[in-house]
Amino acid sequence: MSDLNGYKSGSNLEKILRAGHFAVTAELGPPKNADAEVIRKKAALLKGCVEAANITDNQTAIVRMSSIGAGALALREGLEPVMQMTCRDRNRLGMQGDLLGAYALGLRNILCLTGDHQTFGNHPQAKNVHDMDSVQLVQMVVGLRDKGCFQCGEEIKGVVPRFFVGAAENPFGDPFEFRPLRLGKKAKAGADFIQTQMIYNVPKFREFMKRVVDLGVHKQTYILAGVGPLKTPGAAKYMRDQVPGMDVPDEIVERMETAGKGIEDKKAKAAAYREEGLKICIDIIHQMREIEGVAGAHIMAIEWEEAVKPIVEGAGLLPRPVVEAVPST
Amino acid sequence: MIVAEQKPLEEIRSLTGDAKRVLVVGCGTCVTVCFAGGAREAAIVTASLRMASKIDGHEKAVTEATVQRQCEWEYLDEIAEQVRHADLVLSLGCGVGVQALAERYPDAVVVPGLNTTFMGLPLEQGVWAERCAACGQCILGLTGGVCPIARCSKQLLNGPCGGSSKGKCEVNPEIDCAWQMIYDKLKSQNRLHLIMEITPPKDWRTSRDGGPRKIVREDLRLPVAGKV
């Protein structure tokens, strides 16, 4: 597209990835209320540390400010949003209408998700939608951009929404052997980038990436490795034992436990845990940078946005690069 | 078969309200097989209602009848007299049976004694599981005989979500992950190629989303009198 200088969307995230930089994204969780100030404060913590921040969409099936509304607020603060969109709450009409609105508001990145099941959240009585799945959602958003058509095939007359389209993959979900193939399906659907589930089991992730590289999928889409700082050994244990699809090795739990050993003062103990959590996260980012096919890191510091800057800094990824150049088409 | 569960007796009692003469109608088909609304259950509900109303001091005359198939009008003709004498009919049929009764006897007050739950099969004595969601466009040929519409909690068509863990669904460890089963089956049959292509969004018009459904088979219809 001439107006986008050869970029698909022209988003900052796209520019950084196209330029070959190791990209950094983070997560910004909207509040469970209508307070714009929360977004402003969180955006200030992330601005300058990341290329873009994912704005979650009723994460864990709990009602929060919408990803589009919060994304538009973040954009005003100078933080580029990645609007997350799940298939749980909307059908293809609702999703496409929201995509048009989001684009009109200036949003340029989207992450297409299936969505956590509503029974986990605060409205377990709700009817879910799942008119489409995440692979089909990727295809639909790419179709809006590249074919200029709605999902039904009808032409979009006027401004076409051009998003940089992402999808998620959980390398630790089962069946493990199918995961790289499923990632391939998302790339085939047109996903420009992938953000993975949080990685704590690095050897297993390496195995996953080896298969991804063997399939050549890393050349079809940018893969951002998901990482996240742990706050306490309890959180690590909870993720290890209770969260389906999470893989937290015992060594990580032990590392967190050891960090607080011998410290009596409660506050000092909590601080020691957090410091170790940041260290583990930084270590993992360093390891990710060595893995073939990994194009960046996606930092999920859930309700701990303050952690992002020290992590990015600790990983030697500050300042973030600025890309203005026109890509070679 | 259609699988149903009996409503709690308290709810049944509340549904029967002030009716003096109650007819309990069982069904001899699916709900007999799943022990929810056959002749045996109809007899138990009848006795329970009688006893409960007696204790209340507002004794009801409760009678029972079980038809072979409550979901077809013609099977309901044999209970016409009993329905006429009742203030209220408590159906122990599935939702189709309740409505067939209400349609066949428009003046009768018909209430349900069961919650119709799903189309499924018995896994073992006393355990039933859902198998079909009647979406109207069967894809079992592509998915190794495991239905992702009925058996995946998110009705996914392109593989498992990130919550599939050790063969189980994220919603509940009691639920098998449909996509793990699909993958295993197709892999064992060397037919994984079937799920490598992207399955396009489903056309839900054949499902309930297209509105209440109806099948018309012209080849089976009886000639209308006077029409050549």
Account of the 3D structure:
The complex is a heterodimer of chains A (329) and B (228). In chain A, strand 5, helix 6 and strand 6 form a beta-alpha-beta unit. Chain A has 329 residues and is α/β, with parallel strands linked by helices. In chain A, helix 6 packs across helix 7 and helix 10 crosses helix 11. Chain A has one domain: Alpha-Beta Barrel (TIM Barrel). Chain A is built from eleven helices and eight strands. Chain A starts with 11 loop residues before the first helix and ends in a 15-residue tail after the last helix. Chain B is α/β, with parallel strands linked by helices. In chain B, the strands form three sheets. A four-stranded parallel beta sheet of chain B has the order 3-2-4-5, sandwiched between helices. Chain B has a three-stranded antiparallel beta sheet with strand order 1-6-7. A two-stranded antiparallel sheet of chain B has the order 8-9. The model of chain B has no long low-confidence stretch (mean pLDDT 96). At the A-B interface, helix 5 and helix 6 of A face helix 8 of B.
Per CATH, the architecture of the largest domain in chain B is: 3-Layer(aba) Sandwich
Number of domains of chain A: 1
Give the C-level CATH assignment of the largest domain in chain B: Alpha Beta
> Would you count the extended β strands of chain B for me?
9
Order of strands in the sheet with most strands of chain B:
3-2-4-5
Q: Class of chain A, according to the CATH hierarchy? A: Alpha Beta
Structural class estimated from helices and strands of chain B = alpha/beta
What is the terminal separation of chain B in angstroms? 39 Å
Q: Low-confidence stretches of chain B at least 5 residues in length (pLDDT < 50)? A: none
The radius of gyration computed from the alpha-carbon positions of chain B, rounded to a whole number of angstroms, is 22 Å
